[in-house]
Amino acid sequence: MHGNAAAETEPVAAQAAAAGPAAPAPAEAPPWRALVERYRHSDDRVAWRQLASTVPPYLALLAAMFISLRGPSVVTLLLAVPAAGLLARTFVLFHDCGHGTLFASPRANERAGRVLSLLVWEAFHYWRHIHAVHHATSSHLDRRGTGDYDTLTVTEYLALPGARRFVYRVSRHPAFLFGLLPLVKFTLYNRLRPRPAPPLAWRSVPRTNAALLLLYGGAMALLGWREVLLVLLPVFWLASLAGLWLFYVQHQFEHTHWARQGRWDAYAAAMRGSSFYRLPPLLDWFTASIGYHHIHHLSPRIPNYRLAQCHREQPQLQQAPTLTLRTSLATLRCHLWDEAQGRMVAFAALRRPRG
């Protein structure tokens, strides 16, 4: 069955005011649309299989971790690794619900997204709004700042006072990216509403916070606050680290793409501004194929379980920048966008003569 075609455009259209002026819409469908059209349909049977292979095992591992607290702590930490992998996969399924693609029915995606929000600690409607803005503004230099990782140009960075340069440097340091940020992003930061949003999205944050307090507060009252934290914190830290890393490398690589108003177009933003993160099969399963990020940005209406097929069957879509586990480490040296060179550069490059 085909999902509701309006589900792809409705969230983005609703964000026009928040995202800023958009480029004029093309008079007709772009040529690449035909390449992705037949992959833009959801299959409820696959969706249910994905949920069944992810959520119950995740909850079972949390229970096993709780039981393991009676023994050596190393067992609990070892169990946290696959649990974190399943939580990361749960987030991608939640993400698909936000795009209206996991299930064919908009109502089913809405209900599943709201339930999964209690596992991933994201307010479904607020996240959907912010993420829609990210898709509408990805790789657009004049519309940065919502749903993306803060990126400055070389010129903008050099114009900052010393204190603000220091803050930006800290935000790009691996210790912050993969130490502190994973601890606070889903546990504390997501409890706030840092960006403007429509009323439904705005209200979803305190409502989700209340539901989380009821659910996990009840678990702490029943099982003990210390025990619940000993189980959840390592899982959330590892899952958040994996999720932030995936999001980071999918846009923050040396030869990515940024463009100003008038030169931005959706195809270049997807195929040059998003990477294909080629992961081993097991990691691809745990991340629900989100590594095919170029295709996801080209057509958010493609469910996660059709991304690999689309990539495999369409040679034109295999031309996106490709990263592997090894080559993705180089993204840690991508700090600033150099408009003159058209690539990301490291802070160290500012100390060398440019020419």
Give structural notes.
This protein has about 350 residues and is mainly alpha-helical. The protein has one domain (about 5-20, about 30-350). The protein is about 55% helix and about 5% strand. The protein contains 17 helices and five strands. It has helices at about 5-15, 15-20, 35, 45-50, 55-70, 75-100, 105-120, 125-135, 155-160, 160-170, 175-185, 200-225, 225-250, 265-270, 280-285, 295-300, 305-315; strands spanning about 150-155, 275, 320-325, 335-340, 345. It has a three-stranded mixed sheet with strand order 1-4-5. It has a two-stranded parallel sheet with strand order 2-3. α11 crosses α13 (about 225-250). It is globular, with a radius of gyration of 20 Å. The N and C termini lie far apart (about 55 Å).
Concise structural overview:
This protein has 355 residues and is mainly α. The chain has helices spanning 6-13, 16-19, 33-36, 44-52, 55-68, 73-99, 106-120, 124-137, 154-158, 162-171, 174-185, 199-223, 225-249, 266-271, 281-286, 293-298, 304-313, and strands spanning 152-153, 276-277, 322-323, 336-338, 343-345. A hairpin with a 4-residue loop joins strand 4 (336-338) and strand 5.
